[in-house]
Amino acid sequence: MQNSDVTHKYLRPRMNFPNVWCPGCGIGIALGAFIRAVDRLQIPKDDIALVSGIGCTARIPAYVDFNTLHTTHGRSIAFATGVKLSNPRLKVVVMSGDGDLLAIGGNHFIHACRRNIDMTVILVNNYIYGMTGGQYSPTTPIGKRASTAPYLTIEQPFDTCNLAISSGATFVARGTVYHASQLSSLIEKGLEKKGFSVIEAMSNCETQYGRINREGTAVRMIQAQKDLAIPVSKAKDMTPEEMQGKYVIGTLHNIERPEYVEQYQKIIDKFNPPEEKIEEAEEVKEVEENNKETKES
Asked: Which of 14, 17, 126, 263 gets the most CB atoms within 10 Å of its CB?
């Protein structure tokens, strides 16, 4: 089956196309990488809950045929946490942008890492608030322009992956939309991981970021990722000076740690053993039957 066939297998048939993204946007590539990962793992569509917040990337749930939630700005991980706690069997995925997840949603991000709740976060990083007017985001590099920084940004940006690792995530990786096959493989590993997984997908925004910073066409911006992205195996032998302005791609962190929902269930079972639950259920059923008989008589 061709990749295009696989992609359309997971799209909502009644959704109006073309999509809302600008021509040349990398978000579509990131979406395709995610869909191919799901298809390789053969995860049933009804077993996936895809959650997003607000922004360009956050429009993804509108197009895919999974259980989806398009939530308020910055609250995607909070909603996803509720979904996972209420139905642990679901494969919960958060897919949103750098502004949504690291700015207004930053507090939820670091504490979800700390808890190690079982979900996969795919953070598409295009260095900008694309949908709301081109404001600079927590990942905008120093010295770049934005609508809210016409004279260049001076704030130190987050390193998404280092932030996730230091906050407690158990699987952390970075890919690019240029290296689409690798990105899909990294997402696949994140989906398989039990615990909190973060995959940063480096993308491009020609309309808001590229234009004001004179980065060239969308094609040129995507091709530039080939030179900016350094594989883990190569980066370990490079000096800080050689890594200046570049970033590492591949699996950056992979450890084992107790998962939050399982630990939470142990507490529930300790103070409300399964035997007691059965007895309670039987008592409720008996009361309901008695009530039914009383009404009928």
From this structure: 126
133: left (phi over 0), alpha (psi -120 to 50) or beta: left
β-strand pairing of 67-70 with 48-52: parallel
Beta pairing partners, 172: 198, 253
172: Cβ–Cβ under 8 A, 6 or more apart, which residues? 161, 164, 165, 197, 198, 199, 251, 252, 253, 254
Q: How far is CA 23 from the centre of its chain?
A: 22
Per residue of the chain (297 residues), give pLDDT as tens: 445 678 778 998 776 667 889 999 999 999 999 999 999 999 999 999 999 999 999 999 999 999 999 999 999 999 999 999 999 999 999 999 999 999 999 999 999 999 999 999 999 999 999 888 889 999 999 999 999 999 999 999 999 999 999 999 999 999 999 999 999 999 999 999 999 999 999 999 999 998 999 999 999 999 999 999 999 999 999 999 999 999 999 999 999 999 999 999 999 888 876 665 666 667 777 777 777 777 666
The pTM for the full model equals 0.88
The answer to whether the Cα torsion of 52, 207, 104, 142 is positive or negative is positive
Helix (H) or strand (E) holding 215: none
| CA–CA separation, 294 and 140 (whole Å) | 69
Cα angle 202, 236, 122 (rounded to 5 degrees) comes to 25
φ and ψ of 126, to 5 deg = -115, 15
Separation between Cα atoms, residue 6 and residue 73, nearest integer Å: 30
